[in-house]
Amino acid sequence: MIRPIIAYGDPVLRKEGEEIDENYPDLKLLLEDMFETMYNSQGVGLAAPQIGLAIRLFIVDASPFAEDEPELEGFKRVFINPIIIEETGKEWKFEEGCLSIPGIREDVSRKPDIIVEYYNEKFELVEEKLSGLAARVVQHEYDHIEGVLFTDKINPLKKQLIKKKLNDIAKGNIKVSYRMKFPLVKGKH
Predict the structure, then answer these.
(1) Which active-site residues does the annotation give?
(2) Which of 21, 29, 119, 135 could disulfide-link to 130, CB 3.0 to 4.6 Å?
(3) Any known ligand binding at 98?
(4) Which architecture characterizes domain 5-181 according to CATH?
(5) 171-178 — which CB contacts under 8 Å span 24+ positions?
């Protein structure tokens, strides 16, 4: 089932997610819904807070980047209760966007290499070293479960320049090709 994406301004996007265990209700169905929702909105990652759940869970499928980055072919993962153990390397800028903040793309600086530990969909513990765009997608989604948005990482002047756009998103004054739930609009989906 395709779920509405929670728009910028909703408090759930600012909450630190709670850990879950393998008995989380309907986890398999939730993961199916998240992948369907992400693909429907042409995303490469989706965190549970973006569908209204303040839990430590996100999914990624960065294979759309595989044309430019062949190592991303088949990079599809479920991250449950992840912890980024290490971030290393010289920060690099790359333009990021977010399904919860449509129409806004800005350069964000992140370190290129990470080591992340997480449970996969079978609740097997995995430790993985990621680099480049794979690391960036994971860092972006990880921020979501920490209550952080990519707009928090842009320079203050740029943030000032997009303030009106952010307010418009919160009020639902935007057009998107996927279902959204806006915090400042009653009943509009």
Answers:
(1) 141
(2) 135
(3) yes
(4) Alpha-Beta Complex (3.90)
(5) 172/7, 174/102, 174/103, 176/41, 176/102, 176/103, 177/41, 177/42, 178/2, 178/5, 178/37, 178/40, 178/41, 178/42, 178/99
